[in-house]
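quick one before i forget lol
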Amino acid sequence: MPKMKTNKAAARRFKITGTGKILRRQCGKRHINEWMAPKVKRKLRGWAALAPELKKSVLELFPYRQYMR
């Protein structure tokens, strides 16, 4: 039986922590940022937890997720 493949688009967009949480990038910082206050831009840095209702559909894209760190 062939190997299962990880969805590479999902691998670039999500992180799975050691405890099993799924992290995503913050949205809203790609363009048209001139009007945005610096405080708002700082808050959009980094990673955020994924909504619980989306967890199942994202985990299906990672067949080897139990080995990921």
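fyi The first strand starts at residue 14 and ends at 16.
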